[in-house]
Write a structure and sequence with these properties.
By secondary structure, the chain is an all-alpha fold. It has one domain. The N and C termini lie far apart (about 60 Å). The mean pLDDT is about 90.
Length: about 180
């Protein structure tokens, strides 16, 4: 694996772990929505401060924590906002490397199994079975997105090269006319 992928995975693992300890503590769990609001305000402030590359990592970390806090506060697996976890997989595949949803999917399944609500039925655990089905699609979209971004960069570089060659050609024609 790429060094960048490992670092991003460790940062996301840390975010998921911190969120797990936050929601399992009854005193801290009471303030989960307030923490989510603070995280979103932090996201807005960091958008102005950080460079785009660093901001993508901050955005993915904050959005991961916010989604986990919101869905856990509202019932975990049985939350009506649980679908945000699926959107999170696609978001991270577009913001970071396409392989990140594979690792995050495993983290999320472990997170929801470990923080299982006592009122959760066995049928609600089937929601977790959607992660292995959605993850390959998120990885696929992430790879396509990266390919398109790389092609855009290549087109820009080639356009600049064409402009330079046109300028050189015009200069050569001007020199020939003066002779």
């Amino acid at each position: 694996m790429n060094k960048k992928v490992i670092i991003h995975s460790l940062i996301l693992l840390t975010a998921v772990t911190i969120t797990f300890f936050w929601i399992t503590d009854p005193d801290l769990n009471y303030y989960s929505l307030q923490l989510t609001a603070v995280l979103l305000l932090t996201l807005i402030v960091t958008h102005r401060i950080l460079k785009p590359v660093s901001y993508k990592l901050a955005e993915s970390t904050i959005s991961t924590m916010a989604v986990l806090l919101i869905s856990s506060t509202n019932g975990g697996i049985s939350s009506p906002l649980f679908f945000l976890n699926y959107i999170l997989l696609f978001e991270l595949s577009l913001l970071l490397e396409p392989v990140i949803p594979l690792l995050l999917s495993v983290m999320l399944v472990v997170f929801y199994l470990a923080s299982g609500n006592k009122n959760t039925s066995y049928f609600q655990y089937l929601e977790l079975a959607a992660f292995p089905l959605i993850t390959p699609l998120a990885v696929f979209f992430g790879k396509i997105y990266q390919k398109v971004q790389n092609q855009k960069k290549e087109i820009k570089n080639l356009s600049n090269k064409v402009e330079e060659l046109e300028e050189e050609l015009v200069e050569e024609e001007m020199e020939k006319e003066t002779i």
